[in-house]
Design brief:
It is a single chain. This protein is α+β, with helices and mostly antiparallel strands. It contains five helices and 16 strands. The strands form four sheets. Strands 8, 9, 10, 13 and 16 form a five-stranded antiparallel sheet that branches. A hairpin with a 2-residue loop joins strand 8 and strand 9. The longest helix is centred in the first third of the chain and has 28 residues. The chain is globular, with a radius of gyration of 21 Å. The two termini are 27 Å apart.
Length: 315
């Protein structure tokens, strides 16, 4: 029976297993907890990495302490001239984040996992960080924000820091290409982009993309074409804003039936597979999407594909 990319509703346990060791370590090495009412955060939106569906932002606090970051459409932003509006907004954003944390924590505890990282360690930022915001909408204005959090009370502490950005109407990365390699049970994706001032195509590590692999026998069972299958899978990622599905830069995956939590694909000798890869830049692009078809002939399999080898079918 073919294993393929796990849906949102069945992958939690695999992801959790992969995170157990990391979460246990983080729970035991929390940075100092302190009140930070005077903390300031500089929000630096990279002007060269703004597209129709994603942006890259650096957050630089003036001291190492916990703080919360996020992004909202301008029409959901608070009235920054009103103290009550700002306080209500910060409380709401932090409550939503805390609710997500409690759901995650309850799941771990139900699986007998202990210790579990505390809320600040798991859900807040600490020190200077870079953050990619994805699943944004094209041609829309957003407010990027940050505010300090008192990790003793898990309450907002101090000012709201903001910066504004508008996404582009169309993707800036329609020309991105995805090279693909299969070596034994491992497969690799290399996102490349042509830079006029560089030496042709170069690996890019800041453009979000998604991918999936499926056995041709499973497609027959589903009664679906490769195109239809991948479109449905990737649109589900968009619908549920599944950030854990987003990849940046080179990605390697072991198709041994366990994988890394994002897929439980098991390559089987003599089977034919399809791998779909697509730019995730506010929408699924026909131009920046490929499907590769290959036969897996065991651990000795050595294959390499670029866009000239893609399955010639319309998305």
């Amino acid at each position: 029976m073919t294993r393929q990319f796990i849906s949102r509703h069945t992958c939690s346990s695999c992801i959790i297993i992969a995170l157990m060791a990391l979460m246990a370590l983080c729970a035991s090495c929390n940075p100092d907890v302190k009140a930070v009412s005077g903390m300031k955060v500089v929000i630096d939106i990279n002007p060269y990495i703004i597209s129709s569906g994603f942006i890259k932002v650096s957050f630089v606090p003036n001291e190492d302490a916990y703080y919360h970051v996020g992004i909202v459409p301008v029409d959901e932003a608070p009235d920054t001239t009103s103290n009550a509006s700002v306080k209500g907004f910060m409380s709401l954003m932090l409550d939503r984040t805390y609710a997500d944390y409690l759901y995650w924590r309850a799941w771990l505890l139900s699986q007998g996992v202990s210790p579990v990282a505390e809320f600040p360690t798991h859900s807040l930022q600490y020190g200077t960080v870079e953050h990619n915001f994805t699943f944004l909408e094209p041609d829309k204005e957003y407010m990027v924000y940050a505010f300090a959090v008192d990790a003793k009370t898990n309450k907002p502490d101090g000012r709201l820091f903001t910066s504004y950005v508008s996404t582009t109407e169309m993707s800036c990365y329609e020309d991105i290409e995805f090279e693909y390699r299969v070596r034994g049970y491992w497969d690799y994706v290399y996102p490349t982009y042509f830079f006029m001032m560089g030496d042709g195509n170069q690996i890019v590590n800041y453009v979000p993309w998604v991918g999936a692999t499926i056995d041709s026998l499973t497609l027959v069972e589903y009664g679906m074409s490769p195109m239809r299958y991948f479109v449905d899978v990737f649109q589900e990622y968009v619908l549920y804003k599944e950030d854990d599905r987003i990849h940046f830069g080179i990605y390697a995956h072991n198709n041994n039936g366990i994988g890394d939590g994002s897929s439980n694909t098991l390559f089987e000798e003599g089977h034919t597979y399809y791998t779909g890869i697509a730019l995730m830049d506010g929408y699924l692009s026909n131009e920046a999407s490929v499907i590769y078809k290959f036969r897996w002939d065991g651990e000795s399999t050595q294959l390499y594909y670029d866009s000239s080898d893609e399955l010639k079918t319309m998305w």
